[in-house]
Amino acid sequence: YAVDADSIVQSVPLDGRAFAATMAAARLVHVELAGRAGQGVDGWADEYSLATLGRAAGLVRELVRVVGCPVVRLGAEDWLAMRPGIYDHYAITQALQLARAREMRTEPWWDSGRSKWRHTDHTDVGPTYPWEAFMAAVRA
Predict the structure, then answer these.
(1) Which of 28, 64, 76, 124 could lock 95 by a disulfide, CB 3.0 to 4.6 Å apart?
(2) What is the pLDDT of residue 38?
(3) Do 107 and 26 form a contact (C-beta atoms < 8 A)?
């Protein structure tokens, strides 16, 4: 899904496979927001961004209901343990780094067909993303 202040566009069916993060594609529903990782606290507080966040929270609220996912934000260690929840791209990037450091040569970290590590270097949604407000809106 792609979300901005006035629309939501679904580009892949829920039972399909998006390739936005190849090692996570089979397990995730991807929601991309119009914004950038470095826009800062004030950047997320403008009218456009608040509308985007509200629209995204409503979408995520519906998605977790449909797919049966808990409304909890999780991190890299949780992803390594394959726990269901809500992740950002950065958590998955960190999980890959941990998998490499621990030599976890198994899917989804390791591409056995090519005998190489999968790759991601995403840092979004960034350290200033308003997670508390977003998760509260998802739970509302």
Answers:
(1) 76
(2) 80
(3) no
On the CB side of 73, how many CA atoms lie within 13 Å of its CA?
17
CA atoms of 58 and 53, how far apart (whole Å) = 9
Q: Are 122 and 93 in contact (CB under 8 A)?
A: yes
C-beta separation of 126 from 39 below 8 A: yes
Residue 95: which of 85, 82, 84 has the closest Cα? Answer: 82
- Tens of pLDDT along 110-138? 778 888 877 778 878 877 889 999 999 99
Going 73 to 137 to 133 to 51, the CA torsion angle's sign is: positive
CA distance 65 to 71: 9
| Virtual torsion, Cα 86, 88, 94, 99, nearest 10 deg | 50
**If 0-12 CB within 10 Å is exposed, 13-18 middle and 19+ buried, where does residue 121 land?**
exposed
This prediction has a pTM of 0.86
